[in-house]
Hints:
Shape: globular
Number of strands: 4
Largest sheet: 4 strands, antiparallel
Strand order of the largest sheet: 2-3-1-4
Structural class: alpha+beta
Helix content: 40-55%
Order of helices and strands: EHEEHHE
Amino acid sequence: MAVITINGCRVAPADVGALRELLGAYIEELRAREAGCLHARVLVEAEDPCAVIVYAEFRDEEAYAEHLSSSHVAALRSRLHPLIGDTHHKTIYRAFVG
């Protein structure tokens, strides 16, 4: 069954452009390298451009595990955390019905 992740964070106003560039490249790699990723999108809060979430849907647990161990996720983490500090929060959902 599908695994959905929602990763949220905040970034300083001066770093919004850098975060957009970093996450844009990450989403391109994710779509190109991971057939098990069914959907990925970066969203910004309508009232607060410093509040960002990354929504991703994976085919199943195996696809999600492969994602977590991928080199592009490791690269993202090393570049992301200096921008967002300790503001990261993650919620994982698993398909319940359907």
